Amino acid sequence: MSSENNKQPLVEVRNLKQYFPISTGFFSSKPLKAVDDISFAINEGETLGLVGESGCGKTTAGRTLLHLYEPTGGQIFYKGKEIITKGDVKEFRKNATMVFQDPYSSLDPRMTVADIIGEPLDIHKAYANKAERRERILELMDQVGLNSEHAARYAHEFSGGQRQRVGIARALALNPSFVVCDEPVSALDVSIQAQVVNMFEDLQDKLNLTYLFIAHDLLVVRHVSDRIAVMYLGKLVELADTDSICDKPLHPYTKALMSAVPMPDPKVARANKRIALSGEIPSPLNAPSGCPFHTRCAYATPACSATMPELREIESGRFVACHRAEEIN
Questions:
Q1: Around Cβ 233, how many Cβ atoms within 10 Å?
Q2: Nearest to residue 167, comparing CAs of 120, 221, 225?
Q3: What gap in Å lies between CA 189 and CA 263, rounded to an integer?
Q4: Phi then psi for 68, rounded to 5 degrees?
Q5: Residue 221, pLDDT score
Q6: 3-class DSSP state for residue 212?
Q7: Among 46, 105, 196, 300, which is disulfide-ready with 294 (CB 3.0 to 4.6 Å)?
Q8: What pLDDT score does 1 carry?
Q9: Rounded Cα distance, 310 and 234, in Å
């Protein structure tokens, strides 16, 4: 997995916003800011991990990037070209796809495995005849470790790990270059997670795939990602290469997240001081003023509640949104 910074990014989002209107009474509503003004770029062949607590907007960011939700604001670029029209979106969907979190609800129980995997081929008319379609389906099944005799079976006949393989085969049907992986192993048994994660890495090498890997399991993200972006309450608070974020996080929220990662070495685990955050995550419907993290931050000052810090580059390739980042590190 290599990332080359001198090339144009494969996918880029600038100031992406996704607000959902929530009814607050008769004829009045308030925006829930699920994704609030985030920007990042992903290079070809790279894996960008997107992490944060449940409800921080990770999944919404991935879905908005793919136009599964119409963005409220901001720009999305693929290979330098902005995606604006319906035609742009349709073309983008051939090159960009998603593996969903829940292998139980993301597969149609009335369709056979062959029809589930073949659905993108049908929608985009990506075959000349039935024989070509079947050949492509069997090729995809082989890539994800499923046998050809599984083709006529239904999703409920499979285990969670096998169902997720079906979902991955469907995602790869049109030879995409970019895949959003939305917590693809969180619904699986721990023993199966490693197999599926390794398969993602093998497929990346074989097919030159680029991933946005959304997860809350930091050990998985550390294993698969080249760089990690940390989200809190709809905002990006830190972005850097994996080793920098894991070994020396700069944002107080990232520090707390990393301190909670279990360590296999007992000596390291004993030396590692867990940072317990006080208070609950505020609601994105009533987000705090200024920095969204100031209500739970040990380093907060009056300035933190007054203005939102911008995501700025404080070292080469290291971005952090904290007024006191240099002071506290």
A1: 24
A2: 120
A3: 20
A4: -70, -30
A5: 92
A6: strand
A7: 300
A8: 40
A9: 14
Closest-CA residue to 144 (of 104, 105, 116): 116
User: Which CA distances in Å does 322 have to 21, 51, 151, 300, 316?
Assistant: 29, 17, 52, 10, 16
Q: What does the pLDDT look like over 258-306, one tens digit per residue?
A: 887 776 667 766 666 777 777 777 888 888 889 999 888 888 899 999 9
Predicted local distance difference test score (pLDDT) of residue 25: 82
Q: How far apart are CA 169 and CA 112, in angstroms?
A: 13
pTM of this structure: 0.90
**Average pLDDT taken over every residue of the chain:** 89
Sign of dihedral through CA atoms 200, 202, 205, 207? negative
d(CA 16, CA 245): 23
- List, for residues 144-193, the tens digit of each pLDDT value: 999 999 999 998 899 889 999 999 999 999 999 999 999 998 888 888 88
d(CA 168, CA 163): 9
Contact call for residues 184 and 190 (beta carbons, < 8 A): no
Q: Give CA–CA dist 260/202, Å, rounded.
A: 29
